[in-house]
Amino acid sequence: MRHAVIGDVGGHAHDLWAEVERLGGDPRSGRLPDDLVVVQVGDLVHRGPHSEEVVAVVDRFLQRSPDRWLQLVGNHEAQYLREPAFEWRQWVNARARATLRGWWADGLMRVAAALPGSPAASAPSGPGGTASTSGVLVTHAGLTQTFWRDDLGSPSTAAQAADALNALGRNDADVIFRPGVMLGGRHDHAAGPLWASAGQELLPGWLGVSMPFDQAHGHSSAYDWQRGVYRTVPEVVGRTTLDHDGGHETTHLDGGRIVGVDPGHGAQAHHTWRAWEHRPLSAGA
């Protein structure tokens, strides 16, 4: 199976359409290839000009292929699920709002997804490790070390962490929506998986701690793709590699890696980006 993690779409329907087609999907019918699972990290809406069209395209996939299109909730979708946490200049129409709320109520939009890990023979650990045997946890903003420890009880696999996060989501637990520096202006290494800042809260919090599993996230980046500069501590910079064509950053930490897939779309889409594709290696590969 291929697993493709699509970053923040931000209302850019044409870019989403083109990327899904590149992966082999059909946005018109909502059909995905039998060998493909898509995880979209949230923030489908706002910024770009076609948020309602983005919601309509994703709804076709969720209705036709709900086991192979895994839709995560972002902080911009959360604006329509509870009292808005911040002011925004553009809102989606009533139909799109109802669709987003329906996904959340029906469990079609979740907090987290877990991708399979690689066999031990194919997954060296440590700062240079390329893959975890315990899977890849995918959330909108990433799971901070403090949230993993204090709010989840230190689960040892990505699947366990995803189950715990989704249980909190089903109960509409406030901790899922806990703000950090990007909303409250103050660093909080227990910021929730919809709000943690990659460069200031998520990545620095895992320094010096052995990661139990790999992660992938959207929402923010430790590297500013528009300005071409890092916005994190030097210890993270030294462990991070960049894929400029894909708009991905990979930070290698003790025991695993954290992959950022937010291309930084604004009113205009980033000029180059693609999904991060995860293929678990076979033992001995």
Describe this structure in words.
This protein has 285 residues and is an alpha/beta fold. The protein has a single domain (2-278), classed as Purple Acid Phosphatase, chain A, domain 2, CATH 3.60.21. 26% of the residues lie in helices and 17% in strands. Strand 1 (2-6), helix 1 and strand 2 (36-40) form a beta-alpha-beta unit. Helix 1 (13-23) runs parallel beside helix 2 (51-64) and helix 2 packs parallel to helix 3 (94-106). The two termini are 16 Å apart. The model is unreliable at 120-130 (pLDDT under 50).
List the helices and strands and how they pair.
Blueprint: E1 2-6, H1 13-23, E2 36-40, H2 51-64, E3 69-72, H3 94-106, E4 109-110, E5 113-115, E6 136-139, H4 145-151, H5 158-170, H6 181-184, H7 198-205, E7 214-217, E8 223-224, E9 229-230, H8 234-237, E10 240-243, E11 248-253, E12 256-260, E13 276-278
Parallel strand pairs: 1-2, 2-3, 3-4, 6-7, 7-12
Antiparallel strand pairs: 1-13, 5-6, 8-9, 10-11, 11-12
Compressed to H and E, one letter per element, the order equals EHEHEHEEEHHHHEEEHEEEE
Range of helix content: 25-40%
Distance between the termini: 16 Å
Work out the oligomeric state of the chains in this entry.
Answer: single chain
Q: If strands are numbered along the chain, what order do they take across the biggest sheet?
A: 5-6-7-12-11-10
CATH top level label: Alpha Beta
Report the CATH topology name. Purple Acid Phosphatase, chain A, domain 2
Helix tally equals: 8
Largest sheet: 6 strands, mixed
Number of domains: 1
Outline of the structure:
With 285 residues, this protein is α/β, with parallel strands linked by helices. The chain is built from eight helices and 13 strands. It has a single domain, classed as 4-Layer Sandwich (Purple Acid Phosphatase, chain A, domain 2).
